[in-house]
Amino acid sequence: MRFVDKTGPCWLWTGAANESGYGVLTWNKRVERAHRISYVIHKGPIPSGAMIRHRCDNPPCVNPDHLEPGTAADNSADMVVRGRSIASGICGERHGMAKLTESQVLEIRAAAESGASTRSLAQIYRVSRNSVRNIVTRRNWSHIP
What we know:
The protein is built from five helices and six strands, in the order E-E-E-E-H-E-E-H-H-H-H. By secondary structure, it is of the alpha+beta class. The chain has a two-stranded antiparallel sheet. A two-stranded antiparallel sheet has the order 3-4. Strands 5-6 form a two-stranded antiparallel ribbon. The N and C termini lie far apart (46 Å).
């Protein structure tokens, strides 16, 4: 609990996080997501085959009152309802999880075309190398010409 900030309605994990913003820690010699461990500590075992979903839609939150088990289908439905999927029509910097602006995406593509490495671009823009690769190949941000 030393890595949890309980000053607001969401209890925010302040320790290590993955590139999606979910808290991570080593638990029983395995790297686990912090919200899953919080669920286990406060509510008990995670049902078999279930994932732990955030009602608050806030990846670093570990407040057990904001966590609930569900299926992958439940999680996908949440994503659509909350406007975080392509099906919702919200994409690019209007998307709540966007880490880059459209102008940064254009800069990344131009720099890559000029020979900049995915590693250097990932460091500059503080995203993963895979994110840079997906931007350059237009797998992500495909709505930007």
